[in-house]
Here is the input.
Amino acid sequence: MMCDNLRDKENRLNIGIFGYQETGKTSLIHVWCNEPVNNEYIRTTEMEYSELNVTVLDTTIPLTFGDCGFEVVEKFMDSGSTALPFLKVMNILIFVFATNSIDSYNFLEGSPSSVFFNPGANVEQYVILNMNDLEEKDETKNLVKEHAEQNNMPFFVTSTKNPDGCKTVLNKIVNSYFENNPNALEKFKNNPLNKNTKKIKSQKRKSSKTPQSSHEVNNHNDKKCCTIV
Here is the structure.
């Protein structure tokens, strides 16, 4: 689902995605949102937004992805403006590199220290290395991994040819964000969407004839992975 702007941004988890051209940013978003992936290069000439709900720790989290492609960055630079108004409402920034593109590394090498990419201390930053080509180049992979480690940015490897793997990476990123920001999770738990869910679950428990054992309850509470819904 595409939206024209950051609708209801205060009640959503906003994720900005940046990268050089042809790194697979838009394709990753399509995979996460269960949309068809185009085999041809998708030019992102304007900022585009997609929405998705995920479930983390029994809590429904509405996500908004902001797809900021290389052409969009060039427009900001040519006009003399910056992306700060966009970046300041982001909770997570994901920098996407490609194994077959040293240019993608050169483009994002200075990202963690750049005002353009780093608007404040409250933003969590992550790195994804997208294997969008069968010819994996170890040089790029090693550079990107070193870059992520030096800047304390969690590092993940994906391939849009493996949709389940891509979704697992998104799950880990969202879960990591809430592990580092527990108060943010509490805010979403108070969302009316989750209150309605709790009411339904409570009614189901009352109608259940077989009570849960303490072992089952403990196993349930120990789950920390996200589920895309």
Summary: Residues 176 and 182 are 10 Å apart (CA to CA). Confidence is low (pLDDT under 50) at residues 198-227. The two ends are 14 Å apart (CA to CA).
